[in-house]
Amino acid sequence: MDRSALRPLAERMRPRSLDEMVGQRRLLAPGSALRRAVESGRVHSMVLWGPPGCGKTTLALLLAQYADAEFRAVSAVLSGLPEVRQVLAEAGHRFDEGRRTVLFVDEVHRFNKAQQDAFLPHIERGTIVFVGATTENPSFELNSALLSRCRVHVMEAVSADDIQDALRRALADDERGLGGQGVRIEDSALREIAGAADGDVRRALTLLEIAAELAQDEGGRITEQTLLQVLADRTRRFDKGGEQFYDQISALHKSVRSSNPDAALYWLARMLDGGCDAAYLARRLTRMAVEDIGLADPRALQMAIDAWDTYDRLGSPEGELALAQLTLYLASTAKSNAGYMAWNQARADVREYGTQEVPMHIRNAPTKLMKTLGYGRGYQYDHDAEGGIALDQTGFPDAMGERIYYRPVQRGLELKLGEKLAQLRAARAQARGERGEGEGAGP
What we know:
The protein is of the alpha/beta class. Among the domains are: 131 residues, Rossmann fold (3-Layer(aba) Sandwich), CATH 3.40.50; 90 residues, Zinc Finger, Delta Prime, domain 3 (Up-down Bundle), CATH 1.20.272. The protein contains 21 helices and five strands. A five-stranded parallel β-sheet has the order 2-3-4-1-5. Helix 10 crosses helix 12. It is elongated. About 1% of the residues have low confidence.
């Protein structure tokens, strides 16, 4: 039996030239810098950053092919430093004999700093053409020394239309694909497979291969029922600890802040669909209630706590509706970050002024000695003062003077709070003989 037939369809259909690659039109367009370099064989060390199945491994193989170089691959998941050193030593011998080596390092972000540093002298000497592949942002995951010696190329998820082209090519190819098996499939079914692949060509070809195997019992025709079996688990791309995760939580938070409930609900659904921990989302939504809504609508915080508690009681999927309703409310209600800003300014003053003494008039005086020392002397009991507030009494250390941190916005409940505080601050300033709010105001 031909051993090549035992390989998965995705591996058999791997492009053999740049023209066979699907997607990456921006990066590999005719006349582009990278394409000219590859076709001329003048390849450079690089990092390929992109989602799974976008062609990183294929491009590395083509680099070696066009440059007439030896191709070697190591995986940061499976390989340790001893194996890497062995591959580098072999590349050194090959270099001495006048032949280059393209070293492909898959999941390079999983190597620690010491392991990444091992490649540096070999890249500098030209012993290897280093090609690292990563699904994570190189700025965060790769050390600066390695990045300074490589060019980063961003690869994009492959569009559904391009994936359909790859599927049709596999169906028509008699040598490597399914062309000799009599597989029949409607265009609508191809579109469904391409959509389910979520930008991953390898995944799409794998789904097609599974469907073709199941279709053997149907005379080679891939029916709707067959497709339902194959596409039963249609998970989307989502990395619970990577950049996609932080991009999506950022999108959710900013959609809430922008009062766009529809966009916020979409990102919540995306994250739950991708397997994000619902408790994490409940915690972040609660943070939004205090950071971006605050006292403009104090009900938001209680609703966040209630939704979190509801999810804890009901679990998934029923409890997800509570998080969805909370998201809609947070995005729709009045917004204010005044409390958040006031808290940050107060903390900044604590750092700037250090350990200030509590003014004597507002110190606690539970003993006779403390009273004798002046603790509590001059304190005015606000409930006995006219209007219920002792206007000429400060609550700040003497070295700081009166400070203003909280500035309510003109939205929601803070409209009323702002009016009250403006009157009160003006009365206090008048009682102290000051010009107004600008005197001693916080940053």
